[in-house]
Amino acid sequence: MFNNKYSIVKFVIKKKKSFLVLFLNLFIFSGIYSQNYVPNGSFESIKKCNYLAGQLDSVMNNWSDTKYGACTSVDTYNKCYFNPSNPTYLSIPLNVFGYQFPKTGNGYSGLYTGLWPAIYMNRPDTISAAWCEVMAVKLNQTLIQGKLYKGRFYVSLVDSCYFGGDGIGLFISSDTMICNPYTYANINAQIRQNGHGAIIDTSNWTAIIDTFTAVGSELYIFIGPFTADSAINKLHNSGYPGPIPQNPFFKSIYYYIDDVAIWEADTIPPLSMAGADTTICLGGKAILGKHNYGDYYYEWFTKDSVFNNYSGLLQNGFIKYSNYLNLVGDSGFISVSPTQTTTYYCLATDFTYEKTLDSVTVYVVDCGQNDTTVCIEQAFIMGNSNNPNWNYKWSPPTFLNYDTIGQPLCSPTNDISYSLIIINSNNDTVSLDTVNIFVVNCYSAEAGLDTTLCLGDSIQIGSHNHSSCTYVWWPNQWLSDTSNGMPFAKPDTLIKYFLQVIDTLGNVSVDSILIGIIDCDTVGIDASTPLSVRRIRVYPNPASGLIIIEFEEILHQEGVIEIYNLTGQKVKYQKFDGKNFLQINVKDLISGLYLGKLIFRDGGSRSFKFVVD
User: Per residue in 320-339, pLDDT tens?
Assistant: First the structure.
């Protein structure tokens, strides 16, 4: 999280005119140097998870209560602290002194700014003396003479204190100091509460802040009670009812301490910037955030629908409301892939521990293409979006009319896989999708051509019978199988059959066939027709060249032969004389069933059928 750059806005006063000058400084910060001169000002960097009181030096990086002139048993609290005999002794939010969440991060410190009477070092209770604690830290670098700085730290009175006071302050020094826990150091601290009212708020964090001009070479800061006892304004903590307690611990003033910062007064830290609202495809991702500064804390979250205490969040920090918030990232930039439209919030804590909040909504749309099966050479539109502000790339371009639009036309002849990359106007890759197209043969209903049969004959109808299709014929009279694509029909009378086909993809089609019936053995025979001509033989049948029509006896009559196809069209006409056989050339006829009719000069007639292969 400690890594890079940011811009600094400074207000410059020159020749009685105000100018707003924007400097874009590209600083690379190490883990040591930052805009905050106080290292580990939020007490997040610890050496180990502690469970004993008064262990500042042994558990906290940078800070001390034994070096630089600090004194005695300052406490630290952290989310990870655990005392086997008292699990919440130095934990957060519940601990030995009260209940409080860190303003930033997972930890804070705490110290006494007064205890009456003193009970340590075997001093008798009758001696009226204070018990004070002072914590110290060496700055990242010395302050510059004549330069204006701001200093701030936050305090919260513990629940178990009867009093609150205004004696606490922050002293900046060029030198170390000597601390006596039994006396108040009457030091003119640069950052002090004295004169601004006793702090008795146990629920929230209260800022103690001021501006000062450096004398030059300041390198140490000390936090403690730097006001004479007689000058401290003590005020009853209304959350602690009843008379003044006799237990000296409860007559003490003890504060939790968090977020200590010293910075150049003309520096304005950038605010939280979550970025512009954006739209991504389902399965895509968006990069959120506009900066990632080395000495900022970032907490990205989504929230419970009932949470709306944004002012409390800015004042008291993330962890206090973590039951309502879902942490999703802790750096300035985060990558998200929501499955539905989601609003993300960025709580940015700058190097002064000032918190700002910004939000961004990521809209999610389904703009890719699901795996699909299509008919061979069936044209269909790919994709679900065609945003003119986005860049699309389909690969490979095979079977596509365009490969750089959101919804190209695809006409595949075989199975194929496509990859789709979509980049939005924010240069986010909003989709990385792969789609498989499966190509199958699709079949429609083909019942066959209308036809005419001789009574007693059968015919196979339909044109295909694929296992991937579902067939239904109706009506079911005279059919061998109503669920077969090519059943046999042997009707006794004129009938129209219907066929419904459902193919592999569920496409439904319907077709029909009309079958007419004639009695080929009686058509054209009447009472005037001699018995001898009622019996004829037609061969070869099927025929491919000549057919011969043979009678048992000589006809002794002339006449004509007419040949019809199944649509009723006359395709042949030929005269004959009074012989007992006839020849007809059928080479020029296409394959199929034909009906022939002999018409005699005396008006008699005779019908027959034959097949041309």
Answer: 898 899 999 999 999 999 99
Question: Residues 465, 466, 467, 470: is their CA dihedral positive or negative?
Answer: negative
Q: What is the dihedral of CA 548, 549, 553, 557, to 10 degrees?
A: -110
Three-state secondary structure string covering 454-505: ECCCCEECCCCCCCCCEEEEECCCCECCCCCCCCEECCCCCEEEEEEEECCC
278-365 CATH choice from 1.10.1060, 2.60.40, 2.40.128, 2.30.30: 2.60.40
Q: Please return the burial class of 504, using the count of CB atoms within 10 Å of its CB with bins 0-12, 13-18 and 19+.
A: middle
Determine the Cα–Cα distance for residues 597 and 517; give it in Å rounded to an integer: 16
Report domain 372-440's class: mainly beta
Cα separation, 592 vs 563, in Å, equals 12
33 φ/ψ angles, rounded to the nearest 5 degrees? -90, 135
Q: Which two tokens stand for residue 59?
A: 């558990």
Taking a C-beta distance cutoff of 8 angstroms, is the pair 302, 310 a contact?
Answer: no
User: Would the pLDDT of 422 be above 80?
Assistant: yes
pTM for this predicted structure: 0.62
Quote the pLDDT of residue 521. Answer: 58
Peptide bond into 475 cis (omega under 30): yes
CA atoms within 13 Å, Cβ hemisphere of 264: 17
Domain at 451-518: CATH code: 2.60.40.10
